[in-house]
Design a protein that fits this description.
Layout (H helix, E strand, L loop, with lengths): L6 H49 L1 E4 L2 E4 L13 E7 L4 E4 L11 H8 L4 E7 L2 E12 L2 E11 L1 H49 L17 H49 L5 H32 L8 E4 H18 L3 E4 L6 E4 L1 H17 L6 E9 L2 E8 L21 H6 L6 H11 L3 E7 L3 E9 L8
Parallel strand pairs: 9-11
Antiparallel strand pairs: 1-2, 3-4, 3-7, 5-6, 6-7, 8-10, 11-12, 12-14, 13-14
Helix pairs in contact: 1-3, 4-5, 5-9, 6-7, 7-9
Bound molecules: adenosine-5'-diphosphate.
Length: about 475
């Protein structure tokens, strides 16, 4: 049903259908109520007339009759009649001739002679009459029967007029409501059409565009703003993705170019074994660098894709820190950097031991790389309010304030040329941050240029891994 794909049409149809049902119920209600009232009034009026006639019943030779005052002068003549029957059912008074040939209703007369009043609707000469038959009480017995009839035509005419009005008003109201409903639905939905048209123009290639619709703060306005916010986030995500790909390609190219250069130089003329050995050594170092880089890239890509499952195991933090310190101690020794482990409280974390070790080794490695000989690296931890704080502090070169907010960004290096010589691609700290956050924690850095840097990792003690 292609046509029903329009919300406007569907809304209008629902609205009209609902209105049709309500109007039909309302009209039927009015009609039935009026009909009930009008017939009730007619019956009351007949009863009143009957009461009046009862008062003027006279007996002539034991036969009940009316005092003769009811004649064709009666204002109701032609529309009503009155009959009187004696105790044996014989007619003693009848002016029904003026109201057409109304049947006598012998059943009603029999019932009246038994003391019961009855009312019937009869048709005479095309006229519909309401006929009431009542007993005429005389002493303890029944002296005869009074029958009063009145035409229903007035009531029928009124009801027919009402039906006619309703029959005209019903479709007219529905038609007006349909047009009104379609107009209002169209007005309410037109911004959505505009929104769709604009949204269609915003493609993945041109995420810089925004709807920027000036709409009030209603459902449609909020939809348009949410759409703009979503496009902004997508734009940012695409931008980061492009940057990441460009940076990664650049970082991969550097060692590959170095390897290619070494190979070309080696192949340019015959050389002795020692020269080849030297080239192979350089190539080997570059390949190591490539392996580390690809490893880091893989870690970040899998972390982004949520593919790394984070274990939640009991980790003895002091032991883990001690193990990390021992692992880097020889390298620090070679660089003549003093490594100091501060004593701390016993604490067990629920965390992924391998990832925490990687985080600590990254921080220690950085501290070692950026601390000149004679410097000092201090490692410690403390427990505060259900969280563990571990720090790696050095007396190294420090980080300038303008760089500090960016050092956890991917591929961010403070001094590109210098850092490359010590082997980093600017991914270490972004991996550290991911590990800390994946555990529901955080990492921060404080630094003073020329004095040193401190990295602080905060982890919840009992927290399970925050991401999986
Ligand atoms: P890389 O792998 O290149 O070391 P990182 O992400 O680990 O990259 O670090 C980003 C930058 O932060 C580095 O280029 C370095 O300049 C700076 N940095 C990190 N740790 C320290 C530190 N302890 N002292 C001074 N600078 C640091």
């Amino acid at each position: 049903m292609i046509i029903l794909r329009s919300v406007r049409l569907r809304l209008t149809l629902w609205y009209v259908l609902l209105l049709a049902i309500i109007l039909a119920g309302f009209s039927a209600g009015i009609y039935l109520l009026l009909r009930h009232d009008l017939y009730g009034n007619l019956d009351d009026s007949i009863q009143n007339r009957a009461n009046t006639f009862m008062d003027v019943i006279r007996y002539e030779e034991d036969q009940p009759t009316l005092a003769g005052r009811v004649s064709s002068d009666d204002p109701n003549a032609g529309e009503s009649f009155v009959r009187v029957f004696d105790a044996s059912g014989g007619i003693t008074f009848d002016n029904s001739a003026v109201a057409g040939d109304v049947p006598t209703d012998s059943q009603g007369i029999d019932r009246a002679l038994r003391g019961e009043t009855s009312t019937r609707t009869v048709t005479a000469d095309g006229d519909t009459m309401r006929v009431r038959t009542l007993p005429i009480e005389r002493g303890d017995g029944i002296g005869g029967v009074l029958q009063v009839g009145q035409s229903q035509d007035d009531v029928s005419d009124t009801l027919q007029a009402l039906l006619l009005i309703l029959a005209v008003a019903y479709p007219v109201t529905l038609a007006v409501a349909s047009f009104g409903g379609a107009f209002l639905a169209g007005r309410a939905l037109s911004p959505i059409d505009r929104l769709t048209g604009l949204a269609r123009r915003i493609s993945a290639e041109d995420l810089s565009q925004r709807l920027n619709l000036k709409l009030p703060d209603d459902e449609v306005g909020r939809l348009a703003r949410t759409f703009d916010e979503m496009i902004a986030r997508l734009d940012e995500a695409f931008r980061r993705q492009r940057e990441f790909t460009a940076d990664a390609s650049h970082e991969l190219r550097t060692p590959l170019t170095a390897i290619k250069g070494q190979a070309e130089v080696a192949l340019s003329k015959p050389r002795d074994a020692a020269a080849y050995r030297e080239v192979l050594q350089t190539v080997n170092e570059e390949v190591d660098r490539l392996i580390r880089l690809v490893g880091s890239l893989l870690t970040l890509a899998r972390a982004d894709a949520g593919q790394i499952s984070i274990a939640s195991e009991a980790v003895n933090l002091p032991e883990l820190i001690a193990a990390a310190v021992e692992q880097v101690r020889p390298v620090m020794g070679q660089r003549d950097v003093e490594l100091h482990l501060e004593p701390g409280p016993a604490v067990t974390l629920r965390a992924d031991e391998d990832l925490l070790l990687q985080l600590l080794l990254n921080l220690l490695d950085n501290a070692g790389k950026h601390t000149p000989s004679g410097g000092r690296v201090t490692v410690g931890w403390a427990v505060t309010e259900g969280q563990v704080e571990a720090w790696v502090r050095d007396t190294g070169v420090g980080i300038a304030t303008e760089h500090l907010p960016h050092i956890f960004d991917r591929f961010y290096r403070v001094d590109k040329a210098r850092s490359r010589t010590v082997g980093g691609a600017g991914l270490g700290l972004s991996i550290c941050r991911w590990i800390a956050e994946a555990h529901g924690g955080s990492i921060s850095a404080e630094s003073a240029l020329g004095e040193g840097t401190a990295f602080v990792v905060k982890l919840p003690v009992g927290a399970r891994a925050a991401a999986s």
